[in-house]
Design goal:
Length: 147
């Protein structure tokens, strides 16, 4: 009986100690907000209408709560094993025309966004087995040419 108690205690201690070990935690980059690039800001010109600005920049992330004359485009990238990059573009309007552009952060640096290819299920008809057969080979009774 004492041997059984020792065995159970040892098993319990080993399993608890194994759960406390640090093997590392998977982290991933966390992008938030509107991606703003130098090319987008370079297309902006004073005098543009709000619709023209929306065409170039997209919808703003924030509109000033007490004044509809200021739009803010914010972007923050929290890199998994690195730094946090923040960008901000503030656009000011007067009489529905762009009058001022203020930028913060390094808009000129490139940001590598992860590709979404291979994430999630493949759409119907996009699997490798679907592309292997041509439409002629799928129909029974259709002669196929053999080289």
């Amino acid at each position: 009986m004492q041997k059984l108690i020792k065995m159970v205690t040892l098993s319990l201690v080993l399993s608890l100690a194994g759960g406390c070990s640090y093997l590392g935690v998977y982290k991933r980059d966390l992008p938030q907000g509107n991606l703003v690039t130098q090319e987008m800001v370079a297309q902006l010109e004073p005098g543009m209408t709000r619709e023209q600005v929306k065409f170039v920049m997209g919808s703003p992330l924030l509109e000033a709560p007490f004044s509809a004359n200021q739009w803010d485009y914010l972007y923050r990238l929290d890199e998994a094993y690195g730094d946090v990059e923040q960008r901000r573009v503030t656009l000011t309007f007067a009489n529905d025309r762009l009058v001022n552009i203020t930028t913060e952060g390094d808009l000129a640096s490139d940001i590598e966004l992860p590709s979404v290819e291979g994430v999630g299920p493949a759409p119907a008809g996009a699997g490798p087995e679907d592309s292997a057969l041509s439409p002629e080979a799928e129909r029974p009774g259709t002669p196929t040419s053999v080289p």
